[in-house]
Amino acid sequence: MSTIKSSNLGYPRIGENREWKRALESFWNGNISEEELIEKTDEIRLNNLKKQKEQGIDLIPVGDFSLYDHVLDTSATFGIVPERYNYTGGKVDVDTYFAIARGVDDAIASEMTKWFNTNYHYIVPELNNAKPTLVENRALYFYKEAKEKLGIDGKSVILGPITYLQLSKGYEDSEFDQLVDTFTPLYVQILQELAEAGATWVQIDEPIFATNISEDVLAATQKVYETFTKEVPGINLIFQTYFEKVSNYEAIVNLPVKAIGLDFVHGDSLELLKTYGFPKDKVLAAGIVDGRNVWRANLEEKLTVLETIKQFVKEDQLIVQPSSSLLHVPVTKTLEQKIDPVILGGLSFADEKLQEIVILTKGLQEGRTAVEANIKQATEELNNLQATYRSNDQVRKDIANLTAEDAVRHLPFAERIKLQDERFNLPLLPTTSIGSLPQTPEVRSTRTKWRKGEITDQQYEQFVNDNIKRWIEIQEELDIDVLVHGEFERNDMVEYFGEKFNGFSVTEYGWVQSYGSRCVKPPLIFGDVSWDKPITVKESVFAQSYTERPVKGMLTGPVTILNWSFVHDTTPRYDIMKQIALALQKEIEALEENGIKIVQVDEPALREGLPLDHAKWDEYLEASAYAFRLATATAEADTQIHTHMCYSNFEDIFDCIDALDADVISIETSRSHGELVSTFEDNTYTKEIGLGVYDIHSPRIPAVEEIKQNIHRALQTIPPKQFWVNPDCGLKTRKEDETIAALKVMVQAAKEAREEQVALQNK
Ligand SMILES: CN1c2c(nc(N)[nH]c2=O)NC[C@@H]1CNc1ccc(C(=O)N[C@@H](CCC(=O)N[C@@H](CCC(=O)N[C@@H](CCC(=O)O)C(=O)O)C(=O)O)C(=O)O)cc1
Ligand SMILES: N[C@@H](CCS)C(=O)O
Ligand SMILES: [Zn+2]
Question: Full-prediction pTM beyond 0.90?
């Protein structure tokens, strides 16, 4: 009897209809009790497990579910709670757990940052002075729950110690080995308790090994996994990597564990396997179905790859699985009613991907004929999909003819800024915000009514205009210098453009978790991208008509639109990036023609899109900077181009930021508590910079002094002439009263700091 197994690495938490989001937000708003929250989320989790069982998956992940984020869950497991939450030990209660994630009145939230190269965000563990202990064996709880309630002998999923520590902050590099030694026995305890409860498989997620890691870290890893295997011999450990090929293949596959999980979709793991082989005493968990994209797998090709992989392992020591957790794709395509049926036929969300896994496992085990009908169907659907690709000859010609000069502005920054200063005559330390303003339940529900045809286009437009006008008045009242229209007409900064540009399709229910309860619905790119008519001009011009102050046009940049969409591989990614850039160029020209002279082109996904494999960095950064410059190149010299980025470690992309040649960049930074400022210390960055001076992700209203401190800190490295005062991005997620109160404090702080600077200059 063959032993090839089908497996999954993680399942979306959010539920088919975002029930999870609603439960969490109802709890936070005080509309349901903690018991009701637990009841509702238990139901979602058990339903997710049941579905995977019904699909026929052999190794069903348990413990991948979360009330917010799995990295935060790992911190909670070990009682890693920053001092400011007054935690006194024991199991981390729900209120403390959410306080770390979201902040409370007297304690700011922990930093949140991108999970590798995805649009998922995790809560950064703060290890400062922490005394880790095992305060709750969550893995054990979920293992037992699945077994007792559903008869599922699950595969426990835990975040591995090396990745957890590498993603944490609050310690020096020299303390790493000591920390590893501290955590190792705690992990051993988790594993021993799982073994005692009867667990046979445990997936230890170590995605950090898909990045370039040092020899020291590798040595520590060897030691840790030797200990695990020695101390808990009865359990099958899977050392699970994903998102790229591993950087130290030979060392990784020889780690003393039962199985190694590799991504055979991103990065060339197959080439490594062919070159270096695979240990005969190990199981290879082959990530073969793309866990990061929504397109149907070509079963024929996948089976060929699996058959090749099979030659390198002993007998059938193989597990067939997605390339990563399915957290990064929507739940099921069965709800989609409106999308082109041919595109629907070519889609595969989490549930459909699990079907693909089961089919591939069967095909590998029993031979192709056993799954012939499935292969035929997949091939037909994919051929149909390919036949409907919307090609655009003009766009292709334009892309082919592009030169380096096409991506250069009329004048260099030093000349441009003089013209812009003359034109806008802004005060020192000008104030602005990053674009969106509160998308209240009323804004969201009015859009939903409009989409359902319950209100007319005219009524919806009137509603959006009323909000824009009201907020122009509010911003004037607050005395902000550069205003925004507020993005009330947008569901999301990427999906909105996906609805307007040619070449995209959108889904109705294709939600994916981005952070906490917040979800996004990435559009699909399946066609050449082009621009027909203005997209944002109407709202920007309407806003500008109510004020003498400049209103910023607000666009999403080519790199971000590409990175936050589900892109088919029919056309090379960097070509699509250029297509989007050309479309945006036309939009900027349309804004200028209509009197909008400051345009912000957001690029929050630029940093996260940086390939995990350093060898691919240069190509990506060059293509990204080129696309951004292409989008903005035709702007007049006195048009001020802003860009914006969030949550990132900018050191790696500093040169690229400079190469964007944007006149002003705003960076979300307040949650990293000023650490970013030091990035500018040794640099001779001459363009203008706004750093987020307060965290908008918390309902808490900052104090004037607190914001001034952030401004002072920034002014130690950034000359006042270059510095802008703005909040972090994402005001769309806040309530109106909180936003107004916080912006008022921000403007007050900016004015006081401005007066100080003027006084200093007059001395
Ligand atoms: C800035 N960020 C973004 C990222 N990625 C994006 N694609 N967009 C971003 O803005 N990544 C990094 C950061 C942080 N990430 C996010 C992600 C998501 C949000 C957010 O606020 N999401 C909203 C959903 C937004 C949306 O598209 N809403 C739709 C649908 C409205 C809706 O839910 N309607 C209800 C009915 C309502 C009613 O009748 O009362 C329904 O359909 O059931 C819309 O506005 O039309 C979220 O709530 O999760 C922020 C930052
Ligand atoms: N303009 C957008 C940027 C988010 S990264 C906003 O303010 O929400
Ligand atoms: Zn942002």
Answer: yes
